[in-house]
Amino acid sequence: MATMTCERLFELFDMHADKNALEWIGQCHDCRAPVTVRAVPREDGIHVEGGGIYEPEPERFFLKCNTCFQKDPALGHYQPCEVYSRVVGYLRPVAQWNDAKQEEFKDRKVFDRSL
Ligand SMILES: [Zn+2]
């Protein structure tokens, strides 16, 4: 099954993240309702809020709203959703960033408060 693992979430935080949360904005895979799923680091691990995230292929993300996720947590036939992250102060789909910015996005690191 294509559910997101905790290890993969940590990896995504390492690769992409803004300091406080990763956010996926798109449509629910099952009911097509707009959905925002967030992965938030907390003391006891990463919490996924708002529904389910799937990554059946590397860097291709799919979402489910809470209702559909509880009805059926498995991902059936799927369609891609956008990954959003902050670029120069506002949110845009990474796929629409220019090449230089997309390269820079790959190099982003998590800010470590303990340093
Ligand atoms: Zn749904």
In brief, what are we looking at here?
The protein is of the alpha+beta class and 115 residues long. It is built from 3 helices and 7 strands.
Beta-strand portion reads: 35-45%
Uncertain regions spanning at least 5 consecutive residues: none
Q: Please count the helical segments.
A: 3
State the oligomer.
Answer: single chain
Characterize the biggest β-sheet: 5 strands, antiparallel
Q: How many individual domains?
A: 1
Task: Estimate percent helicity.
Answer: 10-25%
Strand order of the largest sheet: 3-2-1-6-7
The radius of gyration over CA amounts to 14 Å
Q: Cα distance, first to last residue?
A: 37 Å
- Bound heterogens, unique: zinc ion
Mean pLDDT: 76
Total count of strands:
7
Element string (H = helix, E = strand): HEEEEEHEEH
Structural class, judged by helices and strands? alpha+beta
State the shape.
globular
Describe the protein's architecture and organization.
The protein is 22% helix and 37% strand. It has three helices and seven strands, in the order H-E-E-E-E-E-H-E-E-H. A hairpin with a 2-residue loop joins strand 2 and strand 3. It is globular and about 40 Å long. It starts with 5 loop residues before the first helix and ends in a 9-residue tail after the last helix. The chain binds zinc ion (ZN). The site of zinc ion (ZN) has 8 residues, from strand 5 and helix 2.
